[in-house]
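Sample 3 of the quickstart, ligand iron/sulfur cluster:
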Amino acid sequence: MSKTLGLYISVPFCRAKCTYCNFASGVFPASEHGRYVTRVCEAIRGARARAEREGWCLPGRVGSIYLGGGTPSTLEAERLREIFGAIEESFAVERDAEITVECAPGQIAADFLKAMVEVHATRVSLGVQSMVDAEAAATGRMHTRAVVEEDVRWLREAGLAVNVDLIAGLPGQTMTSWMESVEAVCGLGVEHASLYMLEVDEDSRLGRELIGGGARYGAGLVATDDAVAAMYEAGCARLEQAGLRQYEISNFARPGAESRHNLRYWRREPYLGVGLDAHSMLRNREGRPVRFGNTDELSEYLAGTAEGSAEVVDRAAELEEAWFLGLRLADGVSLTAMRAEFGDAVARFDGVVTKLVDDGLLRREGDRVALTMRGRMLSNEVFAEFIGIPVFGVIAKDESSDLPLLTR
Ligand code: SF4
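Result:
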């Protein structure tokens, strides 16, 4: 288990709102940037006092920092320096820390790039989504393929590793146009790529149109679920062929270029989220995971009323999480490690694992259980099978804690 902390900083500002976006981000006046960054810096500086007050263990050394959102590259260079100033004051950032900044193609000012290099950023994640200009424009993206190619070139010249995000299932996308995007990404020579399947929910304009009907955002032009799954599968195969190994359902990297920060989430290592709609997972003094998140209302966050309540994860929920977060990884979960952490309770999942292996959704190789390709495409259905199994029997009191704990 990592002894270092992952720090996530949310920057919710964007130049335009993409039709498929379901994040707590928006187009806000630049005058809000200064107030927001001031609040973020206060939260970073106040994190240790809050952790001590609440009884949480907050590692002092930071192994990874991730600025996401939103589009952090919309910030002025000086704001980026302010954030890193607050981090350096409050934590010991490891010399080889992975530091990622999400950027929008065509929206990286020269002085912002200079500031990223100064704060020792190691990688940039570019929200590309499609390398086909008409598709990108139809969703509200403001770049072209030529702009992406130019940005990748100068980011890499500046010594930064690059991730490119793509989405399968955008309006008007076909297998041919999707593979044109994937092929173009392979041609960029980037260290990392992420392939997502379009998410359909009430939190995006396109999602609401897909659910409720309408023609404004191109919902009628979205491919069927089966066609999107076929795009995902073909995209995975092409990236693997180009040397980008799939290490998680949506993530591909050259050896050694996997996102260390994102691996924390799936390995259940501690992270602190700062800013709008940011989420955290730390451990309390008894070693139990504690999860908490901030408001997704900018006005509340700026007013300083953002501290949400924390939830201690009980042992049964922690075991479920260990399954469905671990199974996201291509290497899957190690049964030996699971038994070492959770004891005999792991055996209660034998029936589920056997059934999912028989259904072709999981594969079991020696000590490890992992998703098959079909399982990756139906991952939510697979994960649902691991929830609600009565693993620890009766409710008892944990000797080491004041908290009630489900136990055998
Ligand atoms: S740039 Fe990213 S965060 Fe901003 S609106 Fe588009 S998808 Fe959402």
